[in-house]
Structure formats: structure tokens, C-alpha cells
Amino acid sequence: MRALLLIIMLLILGTGNFVHAQSDDTKAPEISNVTIGTTTEESVTLTWQTNEKADSSVNYGLQPDYGIVRVPVADRTTHSVTLNNLEPGRVYYFRVVSADAEGNQGISADYKIQTEGTPAIGEGESESEPVEEIIEQIKQIQSVQKLQEIVNETIKAIQGISEDLTIVGPPTVIPETTSATVKWVTDREASSEVQFSPTQTFSGNYNFSQSSTGGNTTDHEIRLIGLEPFTEYSFKVISTDTYNITGESRNYTFRTKAALPDIRNLRIVKVEENAATLAWDTTVPAKALIEFQDLTTGVQNSVGRPTLATTHQMRLADLTLGTRYVAFVIAENSGGDRVRSQPIQFITVRDIAPPIITNVTNESTIFPGGESRIQTIVEWNTDESASCLMTYREGVAGGVDPITIEKENEQFSTTHVEVIVDFAPATVYQFWLNCTDEAKNTIQSENFVLFTPIQEKNIIDLILENFQSTFGWVKNITN
């Protein structure tokens, strides 16, 4: 009876272990700060951190095909695993692995460590006697050619028994606007090379390479120059030791910084009773933001525009008459880097400045028919609400009375459109604009010139013209 109850309890507990709620977590833990701690002849302690609770695993072995030791409970973000029963003086390969409670697994880069002590020599082996015998034999050789053959074979043997050159951990990159410094570490002294390409054009082969001429080292640093701002690059690092054994990393990426904008020609274009207009330029396309403060009350506010541009103009509205304000312009490049201008101050005053007329455009369209009709659309903007009238006349030399398009009602706006249907085809017209703001300040624009399109001929006209050029009598028919 007790055995039956025990079996039932085990089944219940076993079933409970397999009940697992569905989770939306699909992101693997991020592994960082992999550190090699205490190292003895028979053990190595490894530590690392994860950004969420996870278990602790280490893949390791004398060859890159790793074994494993594991702490299977996903309950920590700081991890420590000690590898025991190792051989003294041997090189071990390892990488650390952590999986969260949902089974998402993060894996570190590859590393290599050598235990303390001297490797054990097998029974009956002697290191010194064979070496001394070989050296004595080499001394007896007088042929340069044979000595060179021995050197070549010795190098081949070294390459065959030497450990692979290892890039320890991932390389680090310090990007700038048109350059980047790449740093990495190798397990022994070797050369330094970085191969790289813009990621947009990278197809497996790198377009560029930069190498160091400073000799072999274990701490490598190369500064890549001539890069494009705010561009992603793919790269790998390569190191080769004196025995021509090469190690290289996998492909990595980095992005250069965007060029910082320089704010120039900051100026106050216009001050009104309850508004002010600021304008400035930037050396690279940038987003615009103005932060401003009422120096009487201390109230702060801001206004911005998210589009990238190099010329900027912005109007601060809802200000108080007769008040001093201080404003700062902030320019943000495509990479999110910001620069801030020097402060600029102004006092709101009675509006005595006329509106500013900008962005004057015109477009004419011809509608074919028995009598072709021209439609012309003229558009423009003002920096403040204004009521505008358009005046035009045929030709540019004068002598023709101008015509003003009157409005039934005075309307104030910052965007303006006028549609004209009285223009003749293939004709030059001159026009100008008169705008008045709500404070009765008036301005007249410069004179603009437009050309209406040429009237298209129908198929009958084209046939008759063709016959007329060939047979003179066709002219009598058309008359």
C-alpha cells in the first residue's frame, strides 16, 4: 500500500514539473563581462553576467569541439563555474552559455586559457636528449640548400603541432564620424589587420583592408580612416604569428557617427506683439528645435520641426506683449546627436513690420478644344496671417494697364492661392503681390514673370499646313 501511495505521489510531482505556462519571451539573455578568475594546475574559475536570470553552462575542451559543465537552474544574473580535474600546462578552449527559464539561450564568443604548471611527460620520454642529438646532426651539415630544407620542414612541423591562434573575445570598436578605432587581443604575438566594407555593398568579400606596421603584438589597435558618416560597416580582424599561423574573427558590424551640425547665421527675422520669427542655417541636414523662456515669469516652452533641412525658419507664437524672452536653437542630426546655440534675446513690441512673402510659384495648364483655355495657379506663403491681392499685366515693358484681382471678403492666412483663367496662350505676363497683416502693415513683393504655354494644333490644322507647304493652292481653300 505504501509503495502504491509513493508511486501516485511521484506521478503527481512529475506531472507538476511539466506544467509550464505559455510565455511570449523569445529573447536570449545577453552575456557580458566574461572573466577568467582563479587558475590552478587542475582548475579554472570562470565568471560572467547576464541581463536576466538564467542558468550557467560552460562548453570546454582541449579542442574547439567543446564538452560541457552546467549549473541547470535559471535563477541568477551573476554566474561562476569552476572547471575541475583539468590537466596542468594545457590549453583549453571554452565559451559560456546561459539560458533563461523559457529556454532562450545566449552564447558568448570563443576564448582560450592555459592552466598553470608543466604538461606531464609520458613514461620513458625525454625532451632534452633527442633535441641535443638533432642539433649535433644539424651542425654537421655544410650544405646551405639542405639546411634550408630542414628549416622549411621544421616550420611545417611547428605549424602542424602548434595551437591555433585565437582572437580572444569579440573586438571592440570606437566609432567617430569618418574614422573608427578597432581593438582586439590574441593569445600570442601576431600581426594586425582589419578587412572592412560598407554593409550595404558587402557580399562576403571585403572591399578594404588596413594593417599595422608596428610589428607583432598581443594587444592590437588599428584606426580605420576615410569612412563615410552615419554608415554601417561590416568587418573582421585577422592576426598572423611568426610561424604563419593565422586566426580571424567572425564578421562584425559598427556604424560611424553622423556629422555634427554647425549652427550658423542665427538671427531674429521679425518681432511682433505676440510672436517672433527666428532663422538660421546648419552645415548638415538637421531637425530644428527652439527652447525659449519668458524672463519675467520663468515659464519655459519649446517648438520644433522633425524634418531634416539646412535652412530653418520658425515662428514662436502666443507670446506676451512687452516681454523679454531668451531662446536657444537646438539642431539634431540624423544620428540623434544634438548641438545647442548661444542664447539670443528679444522683446515683443507693437507690430510695425510687414509680413514676409516667400515661396512664390506658378503653374499654367492649357485645355485643348475649339478655343484653347489657359488656367494659371499662383501660390505663395506669408510668415504671419495676412490678406493678399494679386496684380498682373500683359508683357514686361509696361504700357498696359495692370489688373488687380479683387476679393469679396478680406481673409487672413499664411498660405495663399490665386487661380486665373483669363490669360492667353503663348504670352508673357508680369505679376506682383500686395499683402497686409492684421496690424495693417503692408508690403509689395518684387515683380514676377510667367509664360503661358503654346496652343496645340489639332490634327486637321497639321494636315492642312503639310499640304500648304507642298501645294500652294491649298492656301486658297483655307481662305
Question: Could you walk me through the main structural features you see in this protein, from its secondary elements to its overall organization?
Answer:
The protein has 5 helices and 27 strands. Residues 1-21 and 122-126 have low confidence and may be disordered. The longest helix is centred in the N-terminal third of the chain and has 18 residues, at 144-161. Strands 21, 22, 23, 24, 25, 26 and 27 form a 7-stranded antiparallel beta sheet that branches. Strands 1, 2, 3, 4, 5 and 6 form a 6-stranded antiparallel beta sheet that branches. Strands 15, 16, 17, 18, 19 and 20 form a 6-stranded antiparallel beta sheet that branches. It has helices spanning 2-17, 128-139, 144-161, 459-470, 474-478; strands at 31-39, 44-61, 67-83, 91-99, 105-107, 111-114, 167-175, 180-190, 193-198, 208-211, 217-224, 232-240, 246-248, 252-255, 263-271, 276-294, 300-316, 324-332, 338-340, 344-347, 357-367, 373-394, 403-405, 413-420, 428-437, 442-444, 448-451. With 479 residues, it is mainly beta. The protein has 4 domains: 27-114, Immunoglobulins (Immunoglobulin-like), CATH 2.60.40; 167-255, Sandwich (Immunoglobulin-like); 263-347, Sandwich (Immunoglobulin-like), CATH 2.60.40; 357-451, Immunoglobulin-like (Sandwich), CATH 2.60.40.
